[in-house]
Amino acid sequence: MEGYDAGTYGDRFAEVYDDWYDDPEGTATAVDHLAALADEVAENGAGPRTGAPDTGPRLLELGVGTGRLALPLAAAGLAVTGLDASPEMLARMAAKAGAERVRAVTGDMAGPLPDGPFDVVVVARNTFFNLTAESAQRTCLTEVARVLTPAGRLVVEAFVPTEERSPTSSVEVRSITADRVLLFVDRHDPVAGEAWSSFVDITPAGVAFRPCHVRYLRPDALDEMASAAGLALDRRAADWAGAPFDDDSPQHVSCYRLA
User: Fold this and answer.
1) What is the CA angle 61-240-221, rounded to 5?
2) CB atoms near residue 48 (< 10 Å)
3) CA Rg value for the chain
4) Most exposed residue of 104, 158, 188, 191, measured as fewest CB within 10 angstroms of its CB?
């Protein structure tokens, strides 16, 4: 997508992200899952640590955004580092209560990642697919393997692509009011495994474009890419609550360990 880079999504969505994607129940379930996993990893032997002592297990969130997961995880006692390519997203997080507990790092998920070591690395809400080149996705997974503790885990939350075979495009009206029209424009190439979209937000003040470009993978392809980076699938569920994953699951929460 011309004019689109690693920080574009976050910079364009930062002002609306919390309003559009607020999910208190889902967030609480994810936080509970990740906190328990981090405690489990630390108890099973996380290996040697470097730097100052932490108050709890160490977690790195890739694509931390406005702090939806990072802030409650830090409040729960984890030592949280949040990486994002968008200064606008990080500024939104910095303005929130408890942000001083999160170590915020401006950077690309493709690396280099903060050194850690980390007990858990998490990339939630399809964010791994925001890496729009295969090389970037592979480099990210290799970097994750580098910064994990020996007992550490990578957790990826992502949608399961459909079995479409032909390119599609659409324009959808999402909202109409007296002072606003919100359109969603989408183009999808299932052969390339890529989708390009944009919310077109029209108000009397002007037009705002909120674009997104993703390169998506089916779970088995993600497993193969992770294996090449030295990571092995530990377990997979259909959601953060641990529902069984099957062929009809629309999304997955997958946990990887060092091979």
Assistant:
1) 75
2) 7
3) 18
4) 191
